[in-house]
Specification:
The complex is a heterodimer of chains A (302) and B (332).
Chain A: E1 6-9, H1 18-31, E2 36-39, H2 48-51, H3 55-64, E3 68-72, H4 80-90, E4 95-98, H5 103-106, E5 112-114, H6 123-132, E6 134-138, H7 145-153, E7 159-172, H8 177-181, E8 200-203, E9 209-214, E10 217-225, H9 230-236, E11 240-243, H10 250-261, H11 267-277, E12 283-284, H12 286-289
Parallel strand pairs in A: 1-2, 1-11, 2-3, 3-4, 4-5, 5-6, 6-7, 7-11, 10-12
Antiparallel strand pairs in A: 7-10, 8-9, 9-10
Helix pairs in contact in A: 1-3, 10-11
Chain B: E1 7-11, H1 15-23, E2 28-31, H2 49-61, E3 65-70, H3 80-92, E4 96-99, H4 102-111, E5 117-119, H5 128-138, E6 142-144, H6 151-161, E7 164-172, H7 183-188, H8 192-195, E8 204-209, E9 212-217, E10 220-225, E11 241-243, E12 246-248, E13 256-258, H9 263-268, E14 273-276, H10 283-301, E15 322-323
Parallel strand pairs in B: 1-2, 1-14, 2-3, 3-4, 4-5, 5-6, 6-7, 7-14, 13-15
Antiparallel strand pairs in B: 7-13, 8-9, 9-10, 11-12
Helix pairs in contact in B: 1-2, 1-10, 3-4, 5-6
Chain lengths: 302, 332
């Protein structure tokens, strides 16, 4: 029986060195049982020049390994340089994921993926995107099971993807909070975001881990984990499960998900396996439940 | 009527605030219906249909305009309240409807082909190509720019897009791109995008712990104040957090946006309209801020630069402090 899901590796949102990034994607190509891999810088245009030259080599290796390569693009486009980067990505010959509405004219009618930074919350908006050429939509971080179900009912030929593992990108800004935390501004940032491979923890004044800053982006401290919801995801008609690259063994993470979607592990076993790979990080699934995003319906961490 | 030097667009959370704004010299007032179709869905605020009709009549009698904001994102499975709001705004004679959701823009354009539409800041259209999409697809006549752009970027955009631009001139400052922030929903489950309320009062609590006042949102500590310190509202991006062992206002200090000192630059950038934030604020705030901006604009229009000082609005600013925010590149 063919698997009901394709597993995708989302765009790497952190500022890893180009060598580490390349090695990460080589491992995804050679070892990870995934179907789709996203390349491209989403968070900050200042980071892009480091890895951009390696993208053709990495894309080729991934494609040779049978992976679909999707090029993700910037979440917030304000400058000419950023617009040129978006337009360049749209012309690169790969399926493009747009995260800013500016991507719609940039793809010039070619098929595209509507990324999770696009405000696609309802059926009418989905239909407009379908008409514009969207072949897939990765639902917004705030998407609940109920919303996914309603969108799935009208999705036609569009594929729906959910972020099912990793830190949730909660918001974008023009301001760089990584730089600000170091007493710097975005223009003179010294790329301090590169110090934190999984983002910089931002805790409450009474010591609760709550958020992560990652350059201009603010993320959840907890990792979303919808492994326990696999039967529901399947029943709703989600076709793609997106694993966000984190500073953990992503090959092992992807193998657990593969085993779970292929039925070799129960959802509970997969969840417990994932817990073992990142024991310090709380899991969250509140948005899926229609609650506050940081809520968690599963077992508490030790 | 002559084109104003800069059109002054003012908030009205209540019929009294609408009248106060008109009386204080607003060219235009913006308001919303009393439900989750608008981005200031707080208890006791906004207009029922009769109040909206009367408000529009009051403004129109004095030659002013009324814009109706229907700028949240309709919930899947429940578009009807948003469609009804658009239909009613149209039939009540709104001078423009302010929308953010692409599906709702599509509905409004098809249902009311001649209705003037503005693009809400909640759409966060921050570049010429995104604005061009909304212009070409939905014929929006004006875009409210997100607070992520510098004055230079605004000037360039305005010259390129072929629609009017409106920028925020005063008030509470979103430090994230508007319509693209899930911080409040992550802590409370209530989404500004869908339900129209950031950091809703129903989820706010103040607790005294060891002589300190802790402000909490959804049970999460956003700030902690000493006895003599004024306690701010726990909006997540305005809180104090700990990074690398240091406590700071990591996202933004408690400040308000105030552009009085850069109005000539905004005019030179080609901006059509200035927006005052604050539909959740009372009549007195509206009258004072609108009146101050009215004087500042009139003096500039008459060739008298810089006679109204930014500090005249200190008392209406968070923490008594003001910023020009993203309009200056160093803010980033």
């Amino acid at each position: 029986m063919t698997s009901p899901f394709k597993i995708s590796i989302g765009p790497l949102l952190f500022h890893w060195t180009p060598e580490r990034r390349r090695d990460f994607y080589f491992r995804m190509a050679d070892e990870a049982p995934v179907d789709v891999v996203h390349l491209g810088e989403v968070v900050c245009s200042k980071r892009a020049p480091f890895f951009d030259p390696m993208i053709p080599e990495v894309a080729e290796r991934l494609q040779k390994a049978g992976k679909e390569v999707v090029l993700s693009t910037l979440a917030l486009v304000t400058s000419d340089r950023e617009m040129e980067a978006l337009e360049g990505a749209a012309e690169a010959g790969l399926l493009v994921e747009i995260n800013d509405v500016a991507g719609v004219p940039a793809v010039k009618g070619r098929p595209f993926v509507a990324g999770p930074y696009i405000n696609l919350f309802n059926e009418d908006t989905l239909k407009v995107f379908e008409g514009l050429g969207a072949v897939r939509a990765c639902l917004h971080v705030e998407a609940s099971a109920q919303m996914a179900r309603l969108l799935s009912a009208v999705k036609g030929k569009m594929e729906l993807e959910m972020m099912v593992f990793g830190r949730l990108p909660l918001t974008v800004s023009a301001r760089c909070y990584h730089a600000r935390a170091h007493g710097l501004a975005k223009d003179s940032c010294q790329y301090v975001c590169g110090f934190d491979a999984d983002g910089k923890p931002v805790d409450t004044m009474d010591g609760q881990n709550i958020l992560i800053v990652n350059g201009t982006e603010t993320m959840s401290h907890g990792y979303v984990n919808l492994a326990g919801k696999l039967p529901e995801l399947q029943e709703i008609g989600i076709s793609h499960l997106r694993l966000m690259p984190q500073d953990v063994d992503m090959v092992a993470v992807s193998k657990l998900w593969r085993d779970a979607v292929d039925g070799r592990l129960s959802p509970a076993e997969a969840e417990s396996g994932l817990r073992g790979l990142c024991p310090e990080i709380p899991f969250v699934d509140g948005y899926w439940q229609g609650r506050e995003g940081l809520a968690w319906s599963g077992e508490e961490a030790e | 009527m002559n084109e104003p030097y800069l059109e002054l667009v003012c908030p009205a959370g209540t019929p009294a605030a609408l009248r106060a704004a008109v009386d204080a010299g607003a060219d235009t007032v913006y308001c919303g219906f009393r439900d989750e179709t608008n981005a200031r869905n707080f208890p006791g605020l906004n207009f029922d249909r009769r109040e909206m009709k009367e408000g529009i009549a009051y403004a129109h009698a004095k030659g002013r305009k009324v814009l109706i904001a229907i700028n949240t994102f309709p919930k899947a499975g429940n578009a009807a309240p948003w469609h009804k709001a658009v239909d009613d705004a149209h039939s009540l004679g709104a001078d423009a409807i302010i929308l953010a959701d692409i599906g709702l823009l599509d509905y409004a354009r098809r249902a009311h082909p001649a209705q003037r539409l503005h693009l809400s800041v909640q759409a966060a259209a921050s570049n010429a190509q995104a604005i061009g999409f909304y212009r070409d697809r939905f014929d929006v006549k004006r875009v409210v720019l997100p607070r992520v752009l510098t004055v230079d970027e605004i000037a360039k955009l305005t010259s390129e897009v072929g629609v009017e631009t409106e920028v925020f001139a005063f008030g509470g400052l979103c430090v994230m791109a508007e319509g693209r922030c899930a911080l409040s929903s992550y802590l409370t489950g209530t989404s500004p995008n869908s339900q129209g309320a950031c950091a809703p009062a129903s989820h706010v609590r103040y607790d005294e712990v060891d002589g300190k006042l802790m402000s909490r949102l959804g049970g999460i500590t956003i700030n902690s104040f000493e006895k003599n310190e004024p306690a701010g509202y726990p909006t997540p991006c305005k809180g104090r957090f700990v990074a690398d062992g240091k406590v700071s206002y990591l996202f933004e200090d408690p400040v308000s946006l105030n552009t009085i000192d850069i109005l000539p630059q905004l005019k030179a950038a080609g901006v059509t309209a200035l927006k005052i934030e604050g539909r959740q604020r009372g009549r007195a705030y509206v009258a004072e801020v609108v009146g101050t901006f009215r004087r500042a604009i009139d003096q500039l229009a008459g060739g008298h630069a810089g006679m109204v000082a930014a500090k005249s609005l200190d008392q209406h600013s968070e923490g008594g402090r003001q910023t020009t925010g993203a309009y200056k590149k160093s803010w980033r």
